[in-house]
Amino acid sequence: MKKVTTLSLVVALALLISACNFPFADTESAMATSVAATVDAMEEEASHAVVPTLAPLPTQAPPEPVAPTQEPDRYRDNDYCDKYSESQWPEECGPYYDHQPYNKNQCLYATFLSETIKDNTEFTTGESFTKTWTLRNDGYCDWNEDYHLIFKSGTQMAGPDDYVFGIEIDPGEEITISLDLTAPASAGTYTGYWQLETDEDVKFGTALSVKIKVE
């Protein structure tokens, strides 16, 4: 009787241990299967994922080089200076009356070449001097002997009202004009302007200026 009881206890204990072990094995197997399925699903999703394409950034054009600013020639750079009215006239253009629009294809066209007595030359009161300009006829019309230079504005400095050429200047030829002038009797800065005219009193070319300082 004692042996049967002992055997029964052993069998019962074995059954109990087996009953406890079987669920754990099934759970671990189920978990492994679930993890494997999840990994497979993630890999499948990743293989079909669309990688977004980034739009390229706009390309900026390099800045254009800035040309250096050049000081205009008061006798030649009319394209710059003639944009301004007399009240807005830039100082770097020289006297306002020194400018007049020109075109090398026109009949009357005078080119300034040189001068004596530069601007702001100093003289004593009452001192005499001679101002000379050299010009070239760059138009396609002759300047006849009755063409002349007239006083236009400013201080006349005892100069003539009218200087007649007295010779004919063909296109391409040069003429030198000299005026005998006298410095004013009072100290200061003085400017006078003379203008070219035809024999029919048609003005052309740039006004010619005399600017002096009297001490």
From TrEMBL:
Keyword Signal: yes
Highest rank taxon of the organism: Bacteria
PROSITE patterns: PROKAR_LIPOPROTEIN
Region (Disordered), start-end ranges: 53-78
Keyword Signal among record annotations: yes
Pfam families: N_BRCA1_IG
Coiled coil: none
Alphabetic keyword roster: Signal
Ranges for domain Nbr1 FW: 116-214
Family annotation (CDD domains): NBR1_like (cd14947)
Signal peptide: 1-25
Protein name as it appears in the record: Ig-like domain-containing protein
Species this chain originates from: Pelolinea submarina
Taxonomic lineage from the root: Bacteria, Bacillati, Chloroflexota, Anaerolineae, Anaerolineales
